[in-house]
Amino acid sequence: MINFQPLRDFMDQLTAWRIPGADLAVSWKGREVFRYQSGYADVARQKPLADNQLYNLYSVSKVFTCTAALQLLERGRYILTDPVSLYLPEFAHPRLRQISPNGTVTLTEACRPIRIVDLFTMSAGLDYDLNAAPVPQVFQETGGRCPTQTVIRALAARPLQFEPGTHWQYSLCHDVLGALIEIWSGQSLGDYMQQHIFLPLGMTDTSFSLSAEQEPRLAEQYRFNDETQQAELTPRGSNEYRLGSEYQSGGAGLISSVRDCLRLADALAHLGKLPNSSDRLLAQATVELMRTNHLDPVRQQDFNWDPMLGYGYGLGVRTLVDRSLGGCLSPKGEFGWGGAAGAYMLIDPLNELSIFYAQHLLNSQEPYVHPRLRNLVYACLNPDRF
User: Which of 344, 374, 337 has the alpha carbon at shortest distance from 360?
Assistant: First the structure.
């Protein structure tokens, strides 16, 4: 028997604790079976979350970008083993940063090329330092516009942290993938997603920028201050990963609603099939490849975040490989990703189950919130198959 009261109680506990607002939807076998919101979109004004509230997705954007890139894989625009330099020549001779025992830094040419698969799997040797050259220089030279491809081409001058393909490190890999989508498709990243993901899925509230109608629906964003024990307001509309007015970050730039994001999760939970249609977002074989663990033992050791115990990493998504390590009630092959302000996508093809959760709190308490949400959904729903 389905009983979602423990899930409601948990969300209420979160908003009584330190999270200003919590917003969750669950779809099972193609039908929304749970929708609940707790807390506020604006704490100072005591404004409750609305059904069509908008949020910064941050790194959940990566699931969209990897889905878009995999669509273009299916159309033959590239293969995963292609070097990135085939499409972005600036990456032809990546340099490797090495530090000697006495602290001397030297730059040598990498022995391996960066391949497309290295971008998907966060194995390219890039980092996530948004303040390091050349990003500020591009901002200045373009008058704050920072066109996506201009930034990414300049990024190629940065030295790598390790030989491509040898380690896992969270980085701007999926931003580079976003620039490649523009090259392969001949469209901006946002226009490509609009035509090939948002429109087919009926997602009317997802984009890299807000319209005048949408702007008031963006929830206020907070950062929790451990000293004051208060959630403190951040500047309206702030997102440090939007590097300029024209930059579309494939890794962290999208804004969306819970119901919109549930549509993508649900399509992937049905192995790429669009709801109520014979059409597909992706082929079943492509979704299976996406949720296959692509990490070798060395890179698996690098992928050691606490909430990821028991998970490997596929093509831009976590994927569950060992239920026992993290005490997961979800089955092997469950996959998805989260975002810096607390968004969380879970996709389970075995049970045709999808979850999307949103909040707007930087330093999001992810290690506490996400595993508990996951397990509570399975305990409340009690699906027949694991």
Answer: 344
Q: Could you tell me the sign of the dihedral formed by the alpha carbons of 140, 180, 182, 241, in that order? A: negative
Omega into 134 within 30° of 0, i.e. cis? Answer: yes
At position 271, the amino acid (one-letter code) is L
Which residues touch 234 (CB under 8 Å, ≥6 apart)? 221, 222, 223, 362
Confidence band of 98 (pLDDT split at 50, 70, 90)? confident
DSSP 156: T
Q: Which residue is associated with the tokens 């099939």?
A: 273
Domain locations in the chain? Answer: 5-61+192-381, 72-185
CA–CA separation, 292 vs 73, rounded Å? 16
Is-contact 65 177, C-beta < 8 A?
Answer: yes
In this structure, whether the domain defined by 5-61+192-381 belongs to CATH 3.40.710.10 is answered with yes
Side chain identity at residue 45, one-letter code? R
The rounded percent of the chain whose pLDDT value lies above 70 is 99
Tell whether omega for the bond before 136 is within 30 degrees of 0, i.e. cis.
Answer: no
Strands 105-109 and 311-313 turn out to be unpaired
Q: What is the mean pLDDT of residues 302-326?
A: 96
